[in-house]
């Protein structure tokens, strides 16, 4: 069982109190060892309702929390995360499996969102419009939308909640937070920090864990929750749209991706290969911005494939707690099976294995999958259509700019894309043609607190980060004054 000063109980947190431990619990595993590291309380539907009620009682509409108070909450969380980054990283590594240094880096990334919102919260001040319209003076107020449900996935156990919670607190919205059942411990640790090190009042932040269907139903059905912010699969996102339609809830959705990574022959191929490695294998390939389809211009394919294979063969796979590990385990059996299925399917349909083991040679006794590169990928292969969410690099070749933009867009998703070329005009044309919310040019970097990030098409609705993200939980209200 995991031991940590930040994990003194394994229960929910409602109205400023930890909930009692229950007989109904679920297990949390370390994916690197298969060990059970905690048993966590599964909350009932009634407790989720209590969390919403606690949120309602913390919501201040007629006497809003002053901007300075909200700024202080954000700074307190930022400082607590920064001070405890090593411990957060250790817990995160134990339940997710990503390398320890990467896990600690995620704690810093999370702190960055609280810092950004604290620095930019002034954008939420009410202001008077310069124009006198309809013979009135107009002021615009930015009201908190109300109690919000924040539902997060397992792939960034601290990063994803930071994006949502920072903006919700900046807006003055109480929240009911549901982490993924694979990674609730990092969230419990965050709540310990908020409980111990911040002045956030009871009811502003509530933690519920357990069966997604039970918790999701209460959040969707409650008229007291006007908005849900969800990061996860497109399938569940679609379900939430259906389940909230009757009440016309606001939804912020960050869903699946199927990122194209496009390498033109004029690009710096070493830089492209280095960036692809950093992008593709972050979190073991389990991020929605990981390159999922690599398009390489014909004449560069042989050279690029070789550079990539050399780098992939140097990568180390193992327990993220150990020194020098680049890639940890997959999160669970289903995740591992999907990677093997994608490699096998690609090879069956004519792809060539450029690096990595033959899929049939793997015993599957653990959750480690060696990084693999497959060339000759075509649109009929599963790895082209679906997000692999694992350490597979599938490569296809292309000839022209128009052809590769069409191929990149040949997916229902539109989250992240990358283009490598030395030609600035071409980069601008290709970026404009790609229907993706984030297009890296000569970089494989992902989102940052300073910039709005989100998906087009089936990749979602809304943006997190940047000033746009700061406004996600806001209802603008106008007051024209007629006297
Ligand atoms: P992933 O494939 O990354 O596990 P999911 O979409 O299955 O993504 O899960 C993302 C988050 O959504 C998790 O916290 C999960 O428990 C939660 N979730 C899954 N189904 C529902 C649902 N019907 N209502 C609300 N939350 C759900």
Automatic annotation (TrEMBL):
EC number: 1.2.1.-
Occurrences of domain Aldehyde dehydrogenase (ranges): 18-479
InterPro entries cross-referenced by the UniProt entry: Ald_DH/histidinol_DH (IPR016161), Ald_DH_C (IPR016163), Ald_DH_CS_GLU (IPR029510), Ald_DH_N (IPR016162), Aldehyde_DH_dom (IPR015590), Aldehyde_DH_Superfamily (IPR050740)
Catalytic machinery residues: 254
Keywords: Oxidoreductase
N-terminal signal peptide: none
Transmembrane residue ranges: none
Domain of life: Bacteria
GO MF, any single term: oxidoreductase activity
Family named by the database record: Belongs to the aldehyde dehydrogenase family.
The protein's name in its UniProt record: NAD-dependent succinate-semialdehyde dehydrogenase
